[in-house]
Every structure is written in C-alpha cells, then in structure tokens.
C-alpha cells in the first residue's frame, strides 16, 4: 500500500490533466487553439527534427541553456561575494544595501527598453572580435541584452540569500575563532563561508529558477535567432500552437531538472541543516 501511495498518488493529477487536455482538444477540433497531445508528443519524441526552418527543439534548447548558464554564472560570481561582504560588514550594509534595494522591485522585463538602448544587438562575438565562422555563429547567438536580463533575474535571489546566510552564522563560532587568533580573512573563509553555504545554495537554486523564467523574455529581444523562447515566439506568429506547447514543455523539463539537481545537492551535503532544526 505504501508503494502505491508513493508512486501512484503523484500521477493522479497529471493523468487527469492530460485526459482533460486530450478530450478538450478532440471536442474543440481546432489545432490553433488547442492541439492534441499526440501532435505535441510527436515533436517531443523527435527533438532533432527541424522546426519551422529555425533548427530543432534540441538545438534551440541547448542554445537557451548556454545563455541561461552564462548569465546565471555572472550573477552568482557578483552576488555571492557582494552578499557576504554586506552580511559581514555593517558599514557595507549601510552603504550598499539601500542603494541595491532600489533596483530589486524592478521586474527584469522593465529593463528591456534600456537594455536595447545600451547594447543593441551586440553579442559576445562583437566583444571578442571573433574571426572563426563557426565560433562567430555560436557566440553571436549570445546577445549582451539577453545576458543582462538573465543576470538581473538571478542576481537578487542569490544576493539576498548570501546576506541571510552570513547573518545567520552563529556568533559563538566567530568569537571563538577570533579568540584563537584568526584574522578577518580566516573568519570570512573558514567560518562564515561554510556556515552560509546552505543559504547560498538555496539562493542559487531560486536564482536559477528565476533566471530560467526570464529566458523567454530575453529571447524575445531583437537580434535573437535561436533558443526556445525564440522558437515559441516564431511558432505563435505562424499559428503552430503544437510547437509552442512543445517549447513550453521543454522549458518546464529543463527547469525541473535544474531544480532537482539542486535538491539532491542540498540533501547530500546539507542534510545536517534540517537535522539541526
């Protein structure tokens, strides 16, 4: 009975949803409004087929993953050290945090007009002045405007959790290390960083989810020639709702995979945190 509950209960709602979708699509009989499941499934089961002349679902998904990981990595490289400094130093907190918080309520989409004015259609190929044709085509797909939107999406969750992690470090550990002769650098690296890692990982997990959600918005910007977001937008303009839904499912699956990997990381390396509560 426990095995039935474990494996069957989570499938009840998805099965009801899929059945409702298929029955509604059959009754409606309008593929532009709601395509049948088998039409979408055909695209998902043949991910290497060329779609609408702009590449396969697999290729476009790979391009999107590269864009997100680049913007997200930049966000993490800036937000984690900055968050730890703000969390550790009251002077830095008073000086930097009020200014940074002015930008936090601004949705990533609101930056689009400014980003287009700043970067236009410039890409990594423009910055590095690439001459190799294949490398140019690859780097030209990574527009600076897209990276900025993804960066903004991932930055604030990572920053907030990094600050929280440092502030949550037990003062007794800091005092003990200072008593034993540790300098501020040692306290920062050997006490604060390990103590704040669970919170930082949570921030990285949330930040990646937000960055991935910003993907479609980023890929709708001018100059985009590939990516799942671009595929979805182009499919909508030509009335291919089945491709739109296949792209949405691809986004969901990749985002779910990223989240699952972070969950496994948290359970494996930070299990002690939940036992401590």
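-> sequence recovered:
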């Amino acid at each position: 009975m426990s095995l039935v509950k474990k494996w069957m209960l989570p499938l009840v709602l998805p099965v009801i949803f899929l059945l409702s979708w298929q029955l509604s699509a059959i009754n409606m009989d309008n593929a532009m409004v709601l395509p049948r499941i088998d039409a979408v499934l055909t695209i998902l089961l043949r991910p290497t087929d060329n779609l609408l002349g702009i590449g396969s679902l697999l290729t476009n998904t790979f391009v999107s993953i590269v864009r997100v990981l680049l913007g997200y990595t930049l966000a993490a490289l800036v937000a984690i050290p900055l968050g730890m400094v703000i969390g550790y130093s009251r002077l830095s907190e008073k000086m930097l945090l009020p200014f940074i918080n002015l930008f936090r309520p601004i949705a990533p989409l609101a930056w689009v007009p400014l980003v287009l004015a700043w970067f236009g259609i410039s890409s990594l190929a423009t910055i590095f002045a690439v001459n190799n044709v294949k490398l140019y085509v690859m780097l030209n797909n990574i527009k600076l405007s897209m990276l900025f939107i993804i960066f903004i999406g991932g930055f604030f969750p990572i920053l907030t959790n990094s600050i929280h992690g440092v502030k949550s470090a037990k003062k007794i550990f800091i005092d003990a290390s200072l008593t034993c002769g540790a300098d501020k650098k040692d306290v920062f690296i050997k006490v604060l960083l390990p103590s704040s890692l669970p919170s930082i990982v949570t921030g990285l997990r949330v930040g990646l989810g937000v960055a991935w959600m910003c993907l479609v918005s980023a890929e709708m910007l001018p100059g985009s020639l590939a990516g799942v977001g671009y595929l979805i937008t182009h499919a909508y303009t030509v009335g291919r709702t089945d491709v739109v839904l296949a792209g949405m499912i691809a986004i969901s699956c990749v985002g779910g995979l990223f989240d699952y990997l972070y969950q496994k990381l948290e359970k494996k390396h930070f299990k002690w945190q939940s036992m401590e509560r």
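Residues 57-88 form the longest helix (32 residues).
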